[in-house]
Amino acid sequence: MAKKSSIEKNNRRRRMADAFAGKRAELKAKALDEGLSLEERFEARIKLAKLPRNSAPNRIRNRCEISGRPRGYYRKLKMSRIALREYGAAGMIPGLVKSSW
User: Fold this and answer.
1) DSSP states of 60-100 as a string?
2) Under CATH, what is the fold of the domain 62-101?
3) Which end of the chain is more exposed for a tag (fewer CB within 10 A), N or C?
4) What is the pLDDT along the chain (101 residues), one digit of tens a residue?
C-alpha cells in the first residue's frame, strides 16, 4: 500500500488539473496563435507560467485504484500488476484465467 500522503497529493493534482483545464487551454491557444502580436503571445506564455505547477495534467501520476501503487500500472484496468494478480486468482476479473501447468 502506498503512503496516504502520496495518494492524496495525486488526487489534489487531479482536481487542480480539472479546475484549471479551461484557463490553461485558452492561454495555450493564445500563445500558439500566430495571428496575434508577439507581445500578446508572450504575455499569454507568462500567464501560463504563473499558473500553479500542479495544475498541469502531465504531473498526474497513474496509480492503482486498489493499492495506490505507482508502478506496474495497467491503464485499461486502472490497477497495478500485483492487484491484477490477486484479483485474477480470486476470480474477480472476468475473462482472466491464471495459467498453471
Assistant:
1) -----TTT---SSEETTTTEEHHHHHHHHHTT-STT-----
2) 30s Ribosomal Protein S14; Chain N (4.10.830)
3) C
4) 889 999 999 999 999 999 999 999 999 999 999 999 999 999 999 999 999 999 999 999 999 999 999 999 999 999 999 999 999 989 999 998 877 77
